[in-house]
Design brief:
binds magnesium ion; 4-stranded mixed sheet; globular; about 325 residues; 9-stranded mixed sheet; alpha/beta; binds adenosine-5'-triphosphate; UDP-N-acetylmuramoyl-L-alanine:D-glutamate ligase
Length: about 325
């Protein structure tokens, strides 16, 4: 039976966190001491959240399937999403645990050590009956494998297989890989069109330090195309017949939290607007570069017009 008209351009499913970030932090004061810093910000974040917020800013009709607590952190995330025009009808609220949250003391060079408290994202669960509602889009982004306890047990693989049968284009990112991740990916990747971990994660999981070799590993597991986000080196893209690196844009780095998540949001926005692979990666690169200029996963990006103007004027980083 033909699928009914999808409700959204893209649905972003998975890890949703409240981030509280402060910068610059060089050390924690001794004992009960106090240190003064320039800036503290609170914002939604996470592999699904950092992607959906930036895709919405670029003008996509977005929804998100996630679980947050019935607490002040969950209220804040939902309020922020509503202000950004993100559909919240698929968001689950649990009383069992608090919203997943992270404290980020950002170093002067933009690096972000994280103190993470796992929570409601581990409770996120999409039952078979709800698959169709999470697939009412042209694109499905699944983000956060590794920090999604209930879905990581096999249900995410069922969801992605369903989405593929429904004809969606599927993108995927993960976080915090362990020695269990390969088995999870073996079930997930056959449905994945664009696998988008960081290079560091790709190397850890595949045991291969050459990006082309690592990409082959994931393509052998079923991924169609690999895009490895590579910090200030930009990103490495590997299709069936081509491998290349797209450099990052030169920016004044303030905080790189959520750069990888936001890259995915920009990339999906590009695909959804009909961009080819290279143009979509460039949009992702621009969004992630802009996010690096401000504190938080949604900082720096205003809208599509500003991002395209940035691409026109920015220079690339030669590293
Ligand atoms: N120092 C930098 N200068 C310019 N661009 C950067 C810098 N660091 C990161 N980026 C951009 O951000 C993108 C993603 O960064 P990164 O490799 O840190 O992802 P990640 O580790 O998945 O991040 P996260 O999971 O925290 O969102 C890069 O592909 C690049 O375009
Ligand atoms: Mg990442």
């Amino acid at each position: 039976m033909a699928r009914s008209q999808p409700k959204f351009d893209a649905i972003f499913a998975g890890l949703t966190i409240l981030d509280i970030a402060g910068r610059p932090v060089t050390s924690i004061p001794d004992g009960g001491g106090i240190a003064f810093i320039d800036e503290i910000r609170m914002n939604p974040a996470g592999t699904a959240s950092g992607a959906v917020m930036n895709a919405a800013k670029l003008g996509l009709r977005c929804s998100t399937s996630a679980c947050v607590g019935k607490d002040e952190k969950g209220d804040f995330i939902v309020d922020q999403y509503k202000r950004m025009g993100i559909d919240c009808s698929l968001i689950q609220r649990t009383e069992a645990v608090a919203t997943s949250a992270t404290i980020l003391p950002i170093r002067p060079n933009g690096e972000r050590p994280a103190l993470h408290c796992r929570g409601a994202s581990d409770e996120w669960f999409v039952s078979d009956e709800a698959f169709d509602s999470v697939c009412s889009a042209r694109y499905l982004h699944h983000g956060g494998t590794g920090f999604l306890a209930r879905m990581d047990e096999g249900q995410s693989a069922k969801l992605l297989a369903h989405a593929k049968r429904q004809g969606l284009t599927i993108t995927m990112d993960l976080i915090g890989p362990t020695d269990k991740t390969v088995d999870q990916l073996a079930a997930l990747l056959p449905a994945v069109d664009y696998f988008m971990p960081s290079m560091e994660e790709a190397e850890f999981i595949s045991g291969r330090s050459q990006p082309g070799e690592a990409a082959k590993f994931f393509k052998d597991l079923g991924a169609t195309t690999c895009i490895f986000k590579w910090g200030d080196r930009g990103s490495f893209i590997s299709t069936d017949d081509d491998d290349w690196r797209m450099p990052a844009f030169k920016v004044d780095v303030s905080d790189t939290t959520g750069c990888g998540d936001s890259y995915c949001g920009g990339f999906i926005a590009g695909l959804s607007m009909g961009y080819d692979l290279e143009q979509a990666c460039r949009l992702g690169t621009a969004v992630s570069g802009l996010v690096a200029t401000g504190l938080g996963s949604d900082a720096g990006v205003v809208d599509l017009e500003q991002t395209l103007a940035f691409i026109e004027t920015a220079t690339t980083l030669d590293v």
